[in-house]
Q: What sequence folds into this?
């Protein structure tokens, strides 16, 4: 009987969080309609996922989301606008250089060929910068959900954690790419509408919760933003090594 009860519990929990992810995805889409609210909506979604997981998914979902969104909107709306603006400029520049490469190679004059080479170099540099930017941006919902930092320290911490947990960050980036591919497919679009935002954020939470809990519980939060950036704090190679050292 206990095994049967345990099995039912696991099945119930699975469909429970599945339903919660659908609700959170819908709420995030609705609150993102204004465009400038996209970043606060994503952060609110992640924070609600984190809080629900910590409460073993026993808490309500709609009211906590809107409470988180209201608080986070006040704190991050201008940062969100800046991020969306930079992302828009980067995408426009990538498209411009990408088109310039093909147009120049099809040209006849020597000047076109020179401009094509310049475009290739700029395109590679821009792709690298966009990748670094996206790695830091992926950590934004996580960092905001774990600590209250000034904008300057928040940005530093996002990039520090992105490269400190580079493996998890690349996995998160891969999940985002899959989500975008699903969004661009008309046949799979209904799946994206249900899980396209909340599911990648849930994966990010599962990949990062152990490391973030360790760093933000064991380290002084005011010092985290300076780790490895200003060279004032010694960094351990991995938090797993530190935990092993404590056990010995």
A:
């Amino acid at each position: 009987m206990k095994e049967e009860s345990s099995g039912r519990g696991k099945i119930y929990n699975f469909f429970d969080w599945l339903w919660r992810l659908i609700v959170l995805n819908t709420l995030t889409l609705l609150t993102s309609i204004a465009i400038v609210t996209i970043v606060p909506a994503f952060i609110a979604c992640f924070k609600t996922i984190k809080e629900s997981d910590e409460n073993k998914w026993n808490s309500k979902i709609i009211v906590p989301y809107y409470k988180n969104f209201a608080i986070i909107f006040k704190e991050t709306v201008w940062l969100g606008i800046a991020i969306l603006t930079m992302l828009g400029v980067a995408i426009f520049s990538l498209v411009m250089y990408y088109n310039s490469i093909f147009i120049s190679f099809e040209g006849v004059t020597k000047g076109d060929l020179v401009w094509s080479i310049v475009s290739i170099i700029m395109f590679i540099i821009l792709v690298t910068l966009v990748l670094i930017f996206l790695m830091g941006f992926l950590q934004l919902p996580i960092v905001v959900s774990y600590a209250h930092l000034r904008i300057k320290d928040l940005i530093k911490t996002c990039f520090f954690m992105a490269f400190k947990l580079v493996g998890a960050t690349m996995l998160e980036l891969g999940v985002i790419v899959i989500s975008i591919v699903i969004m661009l497919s008309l046949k799979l679009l209904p799946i994206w509408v249900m899980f396209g935002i909340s599911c990648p954020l849930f994966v990010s939470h599962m990949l990062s919760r152990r490391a973030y809990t360790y760093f933000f519980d064991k380290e002084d939060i005011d010092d985290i933003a300076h780790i490895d950036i200003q060279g004032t704090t010694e960094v351990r190679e991995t938090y797993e090594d530190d935990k092993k050292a404590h056990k010995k």
Notes: Residues 62-105 form the longest helix (44 residues). Residues 48 and 64 are 7 Å apart (CA to CA). The radius of gyration is 21 Å.
